[in-house]
Structures are given as structure tokens and as C-alpha cells.
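Two proteins follow. First one:
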Amino acid sequence: MKRVVITGLGAITPLGYDTKETWDNLLAGKSGVDLIKSFDTSRYTVKIAGEIPDFRPETRIEPKSLKRLDRFVQLSLWATVEAVQDAKIDFTQYDRSRVGVIIGSGIGGLATWEREYTKFMERGPARVSPFLIPMMIPDMAAGYVAILYGLRGPNYSTVSACASGAHAIGAAFRAIKSGDAEVMVTGGAEAPVTPFALAGFCNMRALSRRNDAPQKASRPFDKARDGFIMAEGAATLILEELEFAKKRGAKIYGEIVGFGATGDGYHITAPAPKGEGARRSMEMAINEAGCAKEDIDYLNTHGTSTELNDRFEVVAIKDLFGTHAKDLVINATKSMIGHTLGAAGAIEAFVVFFSIRDGITHPTINLEDPIDEADGLDIVADESRKLDIKYALSNSLGFGGHNATLCFKRYAG
């Protein structure tokens, strides 16, 4: 089997327009959550989200094409351009049938659907855009990235709610490992902060209602948590087969060495009791990596700030790792970015690679009174912490009982 390394990273989040700005703000413990500014929330019980302010895609994406691209695709292309530049790879110099694209999105072009459905109801079917379908379907991020660079390898989208981005990376990892591709462009993208989506999440009471203190609203593993914060964003990773990357002289951030994917088969939104599915997902990723549980130094949690996810995720961690659980260093990126749904696993993957590269983990902000189930766990709070990381895990758990875990390793030649 082939070894798979990461050579390029790109991102756009509520904390920054690229990986560096996002990373710097994460290390500083800054929140990207604020009052929603893109539409009127006066009739909503929730008025906060993680939005990307002043996003100007025309500065990086060909302006004429923008009117045919939903915002989630624009975010994905933005992150991808950065990742490709970071990897310093010119695809025209290689066999592009051996370069694929897998990008996950939990919802796809919801803003386009809302806009065109309003036209349909108010002005009739003749007014609906002929681009409605290709703008809204979730696979269009992968499709447009492939079109932009002329890539003809494996190409599709993963749709598994909040695990979509992690599943995309896992699938891309497997494509290279099995020899189906030499390079994969992968990640996740989501633009869910829309009036219709906010109404749906509000009415299922999944979101925090801490409107008076937006920056304090996302508080994974804290007893005072009251729901997650919806957010938008994207991240793209360039994965390469090790020998291919070495031959072209690429810089290497690290390796992907394991991927676990399981299902709960239990409930449409609630995780399985005791986090049983998450536990098996982590165990699968560790087993594929060929390391021991005791070798894992750091775990980037799904950590949504919801009642059941936070409780059962830490229960699963304790059950799997046993006595080593107290030696794991744990944090939650969503405490600052909010929950980018299908993009979360990809954003958190880039965070893990920067943590390995720089030997530091960002804090979990707003953790003031940890839940009882987290007793004995080393959750980084208050400020960033230096940490020498050889192996790390990242969890992504989605509505519908979808679980995905990625195992990363420091590259040592």
C-alpha cells in the first residue's frame, strides 16, 4: 500500500481568509462568532453565527463565473486556490487522469435553493434560473475544482452531514493508498447561514440562544453549553503519494495514516449511547495507522457544544483509551469557529497539521465548568499549549449517526 502525505493547505473561516490568519486567531483564543449581519434576524430566537465578513470572491475567482456559483462553491474554490499555491504544484506537468477531487458538503447550495424557490412562488416557474440544479447540488464544489484545473481522476462529493469533510479526506486517502490516484484535492465546504436553515435549526432547538454574548456562546464540554453555533467556511488539502511528492521536491506537512468510518444505526440526530459509534471509528483509524492507542498524543474533538455530543464523545474517548485517556491532550476548534457542518472535518484537519508542524495546540475557549463526564481528561483551556505531537486524531460526527475519524502522523522520512 502507498503512503499518503499532505503537501498543501488552504482555508477560509470566520477567523480568517486563509490558513495563517485562521491559525493565528485560533492560537490567540479569538472567537469568530457574532450577531448575524447577512439578513434580518428580528423574528428568530437565534441571532448569532460564524459568518465570513466582507468575502470578495472576485479577487481570487474569475468574476464572470461567480453568478453561476453558489457561495459554498465559491468558498471551496477560494480555499483550493490557496492549497494549490501552497503545494506549489502545476497540474499541467503531470498526468491529470491520476489527479482526483473529493470535496464534502453536508447541504450544498441552500442559499441558491432559497432564492430560486422564492422566485418560483412569487413569479412562477418561468423565472427559475436554468442554473438552479448545477448551483445547488453538493457535488459541484468537486466538479468546479476539477474543471478549474482540468483534473480527470476520481471525482465526487461525500454527504454525511457534519462528517462530510472528514469522509472526503478519508476517501481521498484511500484512493491514493490503493493506487487509484497519485494526487487528490480534498476537503469540505459549507455556506449554511441562511434564513431558511437558521429557522430549521432554531425550531429543532439545536442552536445556542446566547444572543447577548455571541463570543461566549460556543462552549464545548462546559456545563453551561446550550447548543452549537452555525458557521460557514471551507478547507482544502492536497494529498500526494509519498514517492510522487518526494520526486517533485514538495514540502510535506505530515502523513495521513488511518481512517475510521462507522454508523450508529440509532437515531436521526442523537449519538448512540455511550458514543459507541465514535469509539469504533477512533479504534478503526488507530488500527489502520498501525500504532498503539498509547501513541496518540493529541485529539481534536468534534466538540459541538451540544448536550449529547459532548457527553458521549468524552465517554467514548475514556472507554477506548482507558488509563491513557488522562494523558491525551484534547481541544475543540468549534469553540472559536462555530460549527461549519460539512466543512468542519476539513478545517479541523488543517488545524491538526498546523499543530503538528508548530508543536502547539490551540485553547478551547469558554470552558469554565467542565462536564462531569470530562473529569480526568486534559482539555486545553484558556491559552495555547506547547506539545510535541507524533500521532493525532480528529473526530467528526454527523446527524444520521455518521462517524469519521482521521489519524495523522508527523512526517519523519
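Second one, unrelated to the first:
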Amino acid sequence: MPGWFERADAELFSAIDLAQRTAGLVGDILEIGCYQGSSAILLEYLRRSNERLVVCDLFEEVTTTLDDFHDRTDSYSDLSQESFEVNFLRFHKSLPEIIAGSSTTLSSSNFKRTFRLIHIDGSHEYEIVRSDLLLAKSLLIPGGFVIFDDIITLHTPGVTAAVWEGVIHDGLIPVFQTHKFYGTWSDPLEVEIPEDFKRFAHDVCGHTMSHLEYVPGSPE
């Protein structure tokens, strides 16, 4: 299906989920920005019966908020909620909780600090990513991970600025980086990285962060 969710990140999502299960961590899952559902489908497989998956997206309304790059390149096709639901139901018997609207409204929802995994792949605008980051900080439980898409993509400087501001000023701990950023606000769980990744350690703002390169068939 259309989208940019890569196998490398699918494997890393699964490795984090395994680490959380091993630690006995139970919590909900939130995705901000789902496009046609590729990552949400995986997240539903990771969800346990006593947890919930919540998906928030503008769907058709996103066309009014596209930045200059996406508007010029026509990067997205078929942003309808119907397409997301059809794709999701190809793999699962029922839909997740769907909030059709801006992620900036979620702070007024009845959410509590119950989330163990938050995937943010919505707006690329600095102010909204900043809002999403602070929301994640208020919702993530100890041992949880927040994941930001497009951390090093050329056309998403707003994501880069907001996330690294969170590291410098809001206590966000950088743990892993692919083209996504993986972080937490608590002591990071020990995650067993699959063999298909090469791992390179960096000292960043007083923390050790690993950038991971996916090379199938090549152990670390």
C-alpha cells in the first residue's frame, strides 16, 4: 500500500515491543498521522487485548495544511479515512479508535499517562511537532518510547528543530535514530537490536544515542 514505512523501522518497533513485554510493561499505543495505514497495521499487531490503539489524523482535511514541498510535489494520494479503514480491515477484524482531526486537540481529550508507544508522523510544521512532543511527554509512561518520523529528511526542518529542542530543553532522551527518532523521558529499556542493523554510538547532549543502518544479511 502507499506509504513510507520501511521494514527497518517495522523491525525496530517490534524489538521495542518485545523489550516492553519482557519488562512487563502494559500501556496504550498512539499514532499521530496514519496516511493509508501501514504503520498502524503493525501497531495493532503489537497491541495486547488489555491495551488500546488510538489513531489521530486529519485525513481529507490535510490538503489545507500541506507545506510548500508537498503541495508542489503532490506527494500524497488518497488521504481519505475510508482508504485507511479499508486497508486496516484487510489485516484486522476491527478498527482502532480513530480521531479525525488535528493532533493539537488531543490535549483536551480524556487521555492520561497510559501510553507505552507513541508514533508521531503527522504535520511537519515546527509549532505542531512541538505541540505533539509536549503531548507525548505528558502521556508516556516510564519505559515508553516516542518515535518521530522524518527527523533527518531535507524537506522537514520543522521536525528536526522541534525534536532537538525537546532534547535540549524538555528532557527528551535520544536513544536511536534511523530516518526516525526514537526517544524517551525515562531510563531507556534495554532493546535487543536485530542482527540486520549496524549500530553506531554517538554522545549527544550528555546521552549515548545509536544511529542504526539497516543492512539485511549483515550482522552488526
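SUMMARY FIELD: The chain has one domain: 7-214. The longest strand covers residues 140-148.
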